[in-house]
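Student: Please help interpret what follows.
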Amino acid sequence: MTKLARTLGLAFLMLALLTPAADAAGITTAQEQQRARDEANRYRSMVGMPAVSSTSGLNSAAIGHARYVLQTGEHGHYESRTTSQYYIGYAPGDRARLYGYTNDSITENYYMGSLGARGTRTPLVTDNAMQWWMTAIYHRFPIVSPRTEHVGFGPYYLNGRAVQVLDFGGDYNKTGGVTRWPVTNQVGVGTRLDGESPSPVAQFGGSFPTGYPVSMTWYRYNANLRYTQMTLVRARDGANIDGYKLTPGNDQTKLSYYSTSLSFIPQNPLAFSTRYTATFKGSIDGAAFSYQWSFTTMPAPGRLLESTPATGASNTPRVPNISLSFSQPVRTYTLVRSPYRGGLDANGVGISLVRASDGMEMGISITLPTTRTTKTVTFKPTVTLAPNTRYSAHFTLADAWGRPYRDAVHFTTQP
């Protein structure tokens, strides 16, 4: 075999190893990578940071590691099974350099979020991963850091599960203005953090779930950062919220030190649809600072308000126009046909119409709104249903905050 043939063979093998498996057609891996970059830039724009670009090297490193995790079952940022065919490199930097990325400052976010991993691929997996990373305090830091110049995203799917990896590259010596999260007057902020590794609250004797972390970050290496006040109050009555105060001086992971961050982590989940006010005061390298700003949390999870036909209805037309009305908007891109009973049996999203007696799936046509979210979903079968027969319309849809609606409507057709 010639050197060229061996090289091409290796290239084809690597491509096969890095191409994520999916259950059904939908958006492509390249589109997911672009969306992750765009979401990172949306968050960065909110805090006044410049946009980042994606690189093929970081994209490949991220996909390779995501595949390694699902195929080997070894979770986290490091790969120790060197004899595995899926092994790429031990650490994030090793993997990035293998694929030609040369910047020295390389960090990585990792998440295993599988809602949307089965069935038609939609942006849900990517969006929920980015949303969780912005919730989890240590994973938030690199997304909005002035040091970050490039990103690479790796989604990988296997048997209804998914892993997402986001790699960052840049210049550790860069500094920028102070960032605050949530930002001033932000609405729809999360209410809780259900877990993070390493834990930012274990050193205080805390446990999950906590409330949504509030942070200020300067990204100045070896800065002298001190606080005199770090509080969160409920705006309507001024009630103080109990919380953990994470600083460069007390953070045992040193991640607050490297990012020059102050974080207030409420001990308990915040209330829905509630306005809070944060106050951070202190000094950095001898210069005093004082910030006070407010934000409002997301509403409570929604529910199905009504359906046509109503669940339990009889004498339903054999080509019914089925309508679902929700109390909170759902993401339009989750309005897809699901071959998995609306994802109820796994991690899929979408809608399915099945004959109750044997589970036979009926073809459906879904009306797609032109808006990003909608409170009303309509669809109908593409075939005439059997007379006097019970059917079930199953659905798993994601609301505007990525939370699932799971339910079913049952009806019987007319004779």
Summary: The radius of gyration is 24 Å. The first helix runs from residue 3 to 18. Residues 1-24 have pLDDT under 50 and may be disordered. The chain has three domains: 29-170, 179-296, 304-412.
